[in-house]
Each structure stands twice: as C-alpha cells, then as structure tokens.
Amino acid sequence: MDTQVVQYKEPEQQAHAAIHSRPWAAWLIIIGGSGLLALAISVSVAKGSVNIPLATVWKAFFQFNPAERLHLIVVDLRLPRALASALVGAAFAVAGAIMQGITRNPMADSGLMGLNAGAGFALSLCFSFFPGLPYLGIIGLSFAGALLGSVLVFGIASMRRSGATPMRLVLAGASVSALLAALSQGIALYYDVAQNIMFWTVGGVAGTTWEQLLIVSPWVIAALLGAQLLSRSVSLLSLGQEVAQGLGMNTFLVKTLCMAIVLMLAGAAVAVVGAVGFVGLMVPHIARFLAGVDYRWIIPSSAVLGSLLVVLADLGARTFNPPFETPIGVIIALVGVPFFLHLARKERRAL
User: Fold this and answer.
1) Residues 123, 135: contact at Cβ < 8 Å?
2) How far separated are the first and last CA of the chain, in Å rounded?
3) Fewer CB within 10 Å: N-end or C-end of the chain?
4) Mean pLDDT across 183-188
5) Per-residue pLDDT tens for 6-56?
6) CB-CB contact of 20 with 294 (8 Å)
C-alpha cells in the first residue's frame, strides 16, 4: 500500500516541481503595474490634440460640470477610450497566454492563429449586410468570426498525420488570416463600406462610448475570471498532454473551456479595437520571463502588462502626429514584428 501511494504521488510531485514560479515578482508586476496603469490612464486622459491640465481632469472626475467643454472631453471621450484600451489589452494578452499554454506553441496569438482576422471578416459582413445591427449583435458576430478563423487554422494545421505542430499552426494562421483579410477588404469595397471597415482593419479605440464599454466589459471580465480559474490546468497542459492526463485531467474538457474563453476575449476585443496583433504574442513571454512558468501568475501578470501596453500605444497614437492619429495597430506592430522575428529565429534554431 505504501509503495502504491508513493508511485501515485510521484507524477504530481514532478509536475509541481516543473512548474516553478516567482510569486514575489508576479506581485511586483501586478501591484506596480497597476499603479503605472493608473498613471498611464490619467496621462492618456490629459494628453491629446487638446492638452488638459491634470487638475482639470481631477475636477472632471469628482466635480463634473456638463457646462465645461473640457469636462465633457474628459468624461465622454477620453475616459471611455482609455478604459477600453486597458480592457482590450488585458483581453488580447490573456488570450495569447492561454493559447501558448494549451498548444505549447510559443508563437501562438489570437492574431497569428486567425481569430482576429475571423472576427474582422464577420464585422465586414455585418457592415455590408446588417448595417443597423445593435452593438450586442456585432459582438456576437465577432465571436462567430473568431470561431471560424480558429477552426480553419487548426483544421488546416491538423491535416498532416503528424498533427498541428507549432510551425504548421503559424503557417496555417498566416495563410488563413491573409485569406480572411482579403475577403473582408473585397466585401468592403464591393458594398462601399470600406471607410467603416478601415477603422477595424488598422485598429483603434477612437469613438468608444460608455454604452459600448458597458456591453463588452461583462464578457471580458467574466472571461478573465474564467481564465484565472483554469490557470492551474493550463500550467499542467503546458507540461504536455500526457502529463496532464496522467494526473487525471480531462484534457478535452479543459481545452474546450480554454478555447471558449479565448474566443470570448478575442471576439470582444476585436469588436472594440479592431484586428490588433502581437499583444498576445509579446506580453505572455514577458510575464513568463519575469514571473516564471506557473499560469496562476502568468495570467494576472499578462492582464496588467497587456493593459499597460495598449494604453501607452493609444497615447502614442494620439501624440505622435497631432491632430492626426496613427493607427494603434501600427504602433504595436513596430515592436511586435521584431519580437516575432526573434521568436521565429529562436524556434528555427531549436528544430
């Protein structure tokens, strides 16, 4: 009996030993990053084509006067925009972290895996055939489009006998994303809605309203909480499916729940900001490097760092060439593309 107990505990002990983490670093990221995020949101609200003193911003928060033009700019335009940036940054980052964990693919990202392009394709159909659809319907179509993109990518990558290898997933994702993006642009041009689609193609949070934010926030917050609840299971899956099954995990159920969360995060984020890539690729690697490989710490760290990245990118998009705005997707791609090339080169050496 004693021997059986030791043999039963050994795989679990080995798994826990392999999932090393640095909780102190994760807490530093969460607490310090949240402070920096609050500061970044304050600066984002104050800076733009019209610079507003921080004292005026403070008064707009706590002593709002609808007769003051600057107060209206702060509350009705810039604050929902800054909060939307933080929300979608967390959504993209956590979606990327979960995908990297369950697929064991360091280059997994909702943009590279076709989810963003699928959601964008659904939005092009929405603007072309259902122009009067309410915002909740737009979010629903974004979810469906993200699901379509992911099914196509994983289906194509799994056609070979060897299955969906990390490099095959990236190649399939790039091909499907290019196809769906071309179809989206073709539909937009044919039905003369290219100007409406362009905003979601290049990415941006300009024009985000409180109504949109209140509709999309519950979806993203629920998905983030679900991701944290599944974080221990994602950590075990990141060690390999055989290890997770050996510990009694229902890997099919966990992967299904994780993909549902990824679809919610990516679909809701694209409905707000558009097809912005590389956030879910870069941020989880930074969180993993700082906090270790335990997803109980990677997911909250990624949420904070992703929010900070997108808020700063939006701030840069508005202040780089005022009064004109640089697309937020371009700002992030300036950092994301070199990061992706570095990862691709690293993976090629590992093969």
Assistant:
1) no
2) 44
3) N
4) 86
5) 444 455 555 555 566 788 999 999 999 999 999 999 999 988 778 888 888
6) yes
